[in-house]
C-alpha cells in the first residue's frame, strides 16, 4: 500500500479518471466513448506522450528543451525534401532526419553545459534558428511551404506499416508510446543512468563529486528529446504523406505541461515518466473531448485552460492527501 | 470528504461548460443512418459539423462563421463550428476525426493542405458522411470524394489580380503572404506573379507573420525600400499592414495596393482611393450555402450535380465600394 501512495504519478492517474468521467458524462452520447472517439484522443496522447517521456527525463535532470517544437518541423521537412526532391527511399530520409536531430540535440547540450547559460534561453535560440531555417530552405528549394507526395517515395509501404498503420482501430503510435514509456521508466528507476539523471537535477555538485558525468548525462538527454521530436515528425510525415514548415509549433510547451501534470518538478530532481504519460493522456482527452462536447471553437481555449488547471488541482490535491496519509 | 471536493471541482467546470456553450451541447440523439433518407427528417435533428482552418484573428473567417451561424438559424439545424487555434494541419485533421466519430449528417471542411487532410476527409467519406469543401481545395476536392466545392479557384483569382495590377502599370510587384504553409495562398501568389511576369514585370513573395502586425508592417516597409511599385496582399491581415507601411512611408497612391477579401477598412480604403481594388470571394456564402445544401440533402436527398459552386472572384473597386460598405458592417461581406 505505502509503495503505491509513494508514487508521484498517482495524482495524475486520478486526474485521468476525473477527466474521463467528466467527458463520459457530458459527451459520451456523441461519440467520446466510442472506439473511434477513443482512437482520436489516444493518437494525440501517444505522440505527445512520446515527447513528454523524453522531456520529463530532461526536466528531472534540471534542464528544458524548447527547440523540440521546431525540431518536428525541421525533421519532417528533411524527410519530405529528400524523398520528393532527390527521390530518396523514405528510410534514407528518416535516417538522415534522425542523425540531424541527434546532432541538434548534441549541439544544444554542449552549448548548455559549456556556457552554463540557462537551457531555457539556449533552446529558445535554437527554436528560432531551426524554424527559420526550415522555412528558408523549404522556400528556397521548392518555392512553397508544404511538401507532399511522400506516398510515392520508395519503400513508403513498409514505413507506413511501422509508423502510420492502425492496430485494432488504434494508431500504431500508441504501441510506440507504451514501449517508450516502459523503456524510459526502466532507465529512470532501474539503471545506473537513471540515478545519474536524478543526481544531475537534484544535487549536481554532490553528483559531480561522486563521479557522475553530469555534463554527459545532460547532453545525452538533449539528444533524446531531439530524437523523440524527430520520431513524432516521422509519424506525422508518413501519416499525412508530407510536411509543412509550421508543424509542431507549440509542442514544446505541451510536452512540458504534460510532464508537469504528471508530477515532474519544474525545478528538477523529481518526477516520473509514467506520470508524463498520464499527463499526455489528460491533454489528449481534454483536447478532443471539447470537440465531442460540441463546444464552439471560439471558447475552446477557455475550456482547455480550465480543464487543465482542474486536472492539476485534482492531481496536487490527491498527492497532498497521500503525503498526509503516509505520515 | 476527499471525493466531495473532487466532485465539486468537476461540477464547477460542468456548470461553466453548460453556461457558455449555447448550442450543440445537448446530448446527441442516437446517430441516424448516414445516407440521405427518402422521408424528410425533422430539421432540428439534423447535425452538421464545420471544420475550417480559419484563425480567430482573421476577420475573413468571422464572416464565414456568420454565414454558418445564420444558415443554422434560418434552417433550424444544429451546427458545430471548429477551427484549430493556429494554422496547424495536424490539429485540424484531428478535429475532423473527432467530428467524424460523432457521425454528423454532413461535414463542411476547408482543404488548405490536401496532403495532411486527405486521410481524415477520406475517412469521413468512407463513413458515409456527405462532405462539402469550402474556400480552399478546389483542385483536389474531387479526388477525395467530396461532393461539392464552394469557393473560388485560387490560381485564377491570383492571375486576375496580376492582370489588373499590370494594366495599371506595375513593374515590380510584391505578393504578401500572411499564412505561410497554406497551399491556397501559395497558389494565389503564383497566379499573381505569373500574370505580372507575363506582362513583362518582376515580382516576389514576401512572407509575414499574421499574428504580429508590427512585424508585417516593418517587412513591407523594408521591401518598399527595394523599389516595389505594386503590392498584392492575400487577406485583411496583410492589407492592414501594407496600408500602414504605405502611410508611414508617404507612398499612399504612389504604390498600387490590391488585396484579397473585404473588411470595413479595406472598403473605406478603396472608396478613398488608397487601395486600387479588392478581390471578393463572398465568403459569407461559403459558410451559408453548405448548411443549406447539406440540410436539403439530409431531408430530401437533393444535391447540386457536383463541381465547383463559384462564389468568386469578383472585384470591388472605387465605383462599387460604397454599396458594399453597408453590408460589411453587418458582417456579411
From TrEMBL, chain A:
Coiled coil start-end: none
Chief place of localization: membrane
Membrane topology: Multi-pass membrane protein
The entry's keywords: Cell inner membrane, Cell membrane, Membrane, Sugar transport, Transmembrane, Transmembrane helix, Transport
Compartments in which it is found: Cell membrane
Transmembrane segments: 12-36, 48-74, 86-107, 119-142, 163-189, 219-238, 259-287, 299-318
InterPro entries, sorted: ABC_transp_permease (IPR001851)
Keyword Transcription regulation: no
Pfam families: BPD_transp_2 (PF02653)
Origin superkingdom: Bacteria
Entry function: Part of the binding-protein-dependent transport system for D-xylose. Probably responsible for the translocation of the substrate across the membrane.
Protein name, entry field: Xylose transport system permease protein XylH
From TrEMBL, chain B:
Cross-referenced SUPFAM superfamilies: Periplasmic binding protein-like I (SSF53822)
Domain Periplasmic binding protein: 48-297
Localization annotation: Cell envelope
Chief location category: other
A Pfam match: Peripla_BP_4
Claim: Phosphoprotein is one of the keywords in the record: no
Residue ranges of coiled coil: none
Protein name stated in the entry: Sugar ABC transporter substrate-binding protein
